[in-house]
């Protein structure tokens, strides 16, 4: 049985993989510098975010209590009055820990604060991390898979030794924040979070419930259905936005069942998966979409091309000559739905929100302290002093 580190419930959150003896309540006093941010306005909708702090400013502090008091997302966006099924949210944690391609705990705190206060509220939330060596299988198939992404360093570097027991606890701190907000956390060794979520989504749906996946990762679009939605962070607007089956059809002019097959042909630059255009420049998205809509799936298309003509000469030749190439892309991009993990009923209960304000406010105080300690260290270093010397 594969190694599994999981919190079955907030009250039983004592996994060796996630030590939680680190308190976020730090006796540290400072002035708070909170910036009120008004986001861009569009003709279609005017939206106002909560209270956020500019990461480049003198303070990381974000008053989560004030955020909860701000205007939330429109009620119609996160409550489908026609749907009576209970919703279960999956929170894809790793992508939220980045500001662009740069690792950032501030980014995690900002998006989680908005998510818990304005999106999920008291709906059940299950947080999922990438497991150790989760990408190894896909990288063996395709070395370029996610090769350009900077890895989030969970351990302290030599330049950060000033913080001693604080820096290097990123994973522990993130887990502790989620636990205190009554969000169970799952991480399965040898599997990416995407595969764990895909497996658990099937188990949730079998119970007659709806699913909302909170992630910027477009790989999850292959799971969209009437009962599976996405909610995606929009950095330019500082808010989350729901993405449904209707949105997908309007954007791509096809159904999500075609998403995976289409991306296998056109490639996925974000994941480092090259498309067939690198070998056959004329074989673009328009041609790929037309063929997939006609044949349904990549495998059906490849099987048809092996015995008869399915398109123009350049497309016919590409589908026969590079069939193995496309099948490899499929294996790399397809979400696995057979991870060795079982859904627990404890994860489906209504979330207790009473600790959200305190836990997240303490988290931002912690970030503020870490920033000051780092600045002090750099100041000493620039003056020729060694802060580590006794």
UniProtKB/TrEMBL annotation:
Kinase as UniProt keyword: no
Xref: Gene3D superfamilies: 5' to 3' exonuclease, C-terminal subdomain (1.10.150.20), 5'-nuclease (3.40.50.1010)
CDD domains reported for this sequence: PIN_53EXO
Domain of life: Eukaryota
Record key words, sorted: Hydrolase, Nuclease
GO biological process terms, semicolon-separated: DNA replication, Okazaki fragment processing
SMART domains from the UniProt entry: 53EXOc
InterPro entries, per database record: 5-3_exonucl_a-hlix_arch_N, 5-3_exonuclease, 5-3_exonuclease_C_sf, DNA_polI_H3TH, FEN, PIN-like_dom_sf
Domain 5'-3' exonuclease residue range list: 86-351
GO molecular function ontology, one term from the record: 5'-flap endonuclease activity
First and last residue of the signal peptide: none
SUPFAM superfamilies: 5' to 3' exonuclease, C-terminal subdomain, PIN domain-like
Name under which the protein is recorded: 5'-3' exonuclease domain-containing protein
